[in-house]
């Protein structure tokens, strides 16, 4: 009888350990905080142009369309939206200026260091290349050196880049980007502002292309937006 009791007890303990292991695995791989927070409603932002100087502009500054993104380099939704950005720039050559504003979220371990590394690329002419590389290699954040990202983006002065990444002072563009995002009601990433129209959720390729076409034709981006105040 005692032998049977010991066997039963061992079996129960084994099942408990297995169940505990499943819980741990589930928490590790499935309970990671999501980047998108509660999305604010779509709205027109009066002071949207204030975001342009605190971001990195790519494209013709005289373009009639300004596509502003508050982004986080560790955000998977931002990585997806980066593809949308390329689709839009290709669809409207010379008509869209894209502005990337740093908005690293505190829930992401490597978002702020990655943002700083990206800022270290800014003095060169490879910012957009680096942005693409950071998103393409997003799964390697924290595993690959920042110098590897810079090299893949085409940065030649890797010594200056490496020196920059070790600086401890706050990066002005990151500080300004986060402050501006909070001022404009940014609640998650990517938050997209199109000529003042702030999307509650990041638009798809089709939605954004249609909205830009409407703006170029002098119409509101889509019926769901309220009217602009100017």
How does this model look, in words?
This protein is of the alpha+beta class. The protein has 2 domains: 1-31; 43-216, Glutaredoxin (3-Layer(aba) Sandwich), CATH 3.40.30.10. 46% of the residues lie in helices and 11% in strands. It has helices spanning 2-30, 76-91, 111-121, 127-136, 146-153, 158-165, 172-183, 205-216; strands at residues 43-44, 56-58, 65-71, 96-102, 191-194, 197-198. A 6-stranded mixed sheet has the order 1-6-5-3-4-2, sandwiched between helices. α3 runs antiparallel to α4 (127-136) and α5 (146-153) packs antiparallel against α6 (158-165). 33% of the residues are buried. Residues 15-37 have low confidence and may be disordered.
Entry keywords:
single chain; 230 residues; alpha+beta; Glutaredoxin; 2 domains; six-stranded mixed β-sheet; 8 helices
Number of domains: 2
Which strand order does the major sheet show?
1-6-5-3-4-2
**Would you list the SSEs in sequence order as H and E?**
HEEEHEHHHHHEEH
What's the name of the CATH homologous superfamily of the largest domain? Glutaredoxin
Average pLDDT confidence is 84
The unreliable regions are 15-37
> What is the C-alpha radius of gyration, as a whole number of Å?
23 Å
CATH class of the largest domain: Alpha Beta
Number of helices: 8
Topology, number of strands: 6
- Strand pairing plus helix content: what structural class? alpha+beta
How far is the N terminus from the C terminus? 86 Å
CATH fold name of the largest domain: Glutaredoxin
Percent of residues in beta strands = 5-15%
* Proportion of residues in helical segments: 40-55%
Shape: globular
């Amino acid at each position: 009888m005692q032998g049977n009791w010991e066997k039963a007890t061992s079996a129960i303990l084994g099942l408990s350990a297995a169940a505990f292991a499943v819980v741990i695995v589930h928490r590790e791989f499935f309970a990671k905080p999501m980047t998108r927070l509660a999305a604010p409603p779509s709205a027109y932002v009066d002071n949207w142009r204030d975001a342009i100087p605190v971001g990195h502009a790519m494209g013709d500054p005289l373009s009639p369309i300004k596509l502003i993104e508050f982004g986080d380099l560790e955000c998977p939704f931002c990585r997806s939206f980066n593809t949308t950005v390329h689709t839009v720039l290709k669809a409207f050559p010379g008509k869209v200026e894209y502005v990337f504003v740093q908005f690293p979220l505190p829930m992401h371990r490597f978002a702020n260091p990655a943002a700083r590394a990206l800022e270290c690329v800014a003095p060169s002419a490879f910012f957009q290349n680096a942005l693409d590389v950071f998103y393409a290699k997003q799964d390697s954040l924290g595993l690959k050196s920042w110098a590897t990202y810079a090299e893949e983006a085409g940065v030649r002065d890797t010594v200056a880049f490496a020196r920059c990444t070790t600086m401890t002072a706050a990066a002005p563009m990151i500080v300004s980007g986060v402050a501006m995002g909070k001022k404009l009601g940014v609640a998650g990433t990517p938050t997209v502002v199109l000529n003042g129209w702030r999307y509650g959720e990041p638009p798809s390729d089709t939605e954004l292309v249609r909205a830009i076409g409407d703006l170029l034709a002098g119409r509101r981006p889509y019926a769901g937006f309220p009217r602009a105040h100017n």
